[in-house]
Specification:
Elements: E1 7-11, E2 21-26, H1 35-44, H2 46-55, E3 63-67, E4 75-80, H3 91-108, E5 113-116, H4 128-144, E6 151-156, H5 159-173
Parallel strand pairs: 1-6, 2-4, 2-5, 5-6
Antiparallel strand pairs: 3-4
Helix pairs in contact: 3-4, 4-5
The chain binds adenosine-5'-diphosphate (ADP).
Length: about 170
């Protein structure tokens, strides 16, 4: 199937989705935080923190996997996006790494359906347009060479984010 038909934009709360894996925009400690990270920990329950603590952290641009516990999702893939520092501190490459490494891990665990939040585009300050373009470009590149995951959802928390992702999709595929 064409990568475009395997990627979709959805608006809503990532913690409610029925997918094999959801991605968490974590921080290097993996000990939880605000934003989507806090929401995922609240929804998954305290076992998620216990398993995350045992992992012992994750460098920026990389990804780690845990179980999903009380979530519908079987797995949580924790990736650490870069903090935006103006664009000249390898932020683009690090964010691209988040997507590539998360998708690689997903494939290793036979994940068929996965959902990403807008990693780094909240408290970490990455401009949403630029983050969305990287997310879509990097995911397309991965899906071009891989049958798994079968479906990738980009979860937008606001209508504004949804519009930006839609535009990024048009740019990357046209
Ligand atoms: P970061 O620290 O990587 O910037 P944030 O959690 O602050 O991560 O924000 C990342 C994106 O996730 C933002 O666009 C934010 O609006 C969005 N977000 C926050 N909560 C949720 C949620 N429950 N589901 C999906 N997206 C969410």
């Amino acid at each position: 199937m064409d990568p475009r038909d395997r990627m979709e934009i959805v608006q809503g709360d990532i913690t409610t989705l029925h997918v094999d894996a959801i991605v968490n925009a974590a921080n290097e400690s993996l000990l939880g935080g605000g934003g989507v990270d806090g929401a995922i920990h609240r929804a998954a329950g305290p076992e998620l923190l216990a398993e995350s603590r045992a992992i012992g952290g994750c460098p920026t641009g990389e990804a780690r996997i845990t179980k999903g516990y009380r979530l519908h999702a079987r797995w949580v893939i924790h990736t650490v996006g870069p903090v935006w520092q103006g664009g000249r501190s390898h932020e683009d490459e690090l964010l691209a790494g988040c997507y590539a490494n998360s998708l690689t891990l997903a494939r290793e665990y036979d994940v068929r359906t996965i959902a990403f939040p807008a990693v780094s585009a909240g408290v970490y300050g990455f401009p949403m347009e630029r983050a969305a373009r990287i997310a879509i470009k990097e995911t397309k590149r991965f899906l071009d060479d891989s049958e798994l995951p079968e479906k990738v959802a980009f979860v937008c928390f606001s209508r504004r984010a949804e519009d930006i992702y839609q535009q990024a999709m048009d740019e990357v595929f046209n």
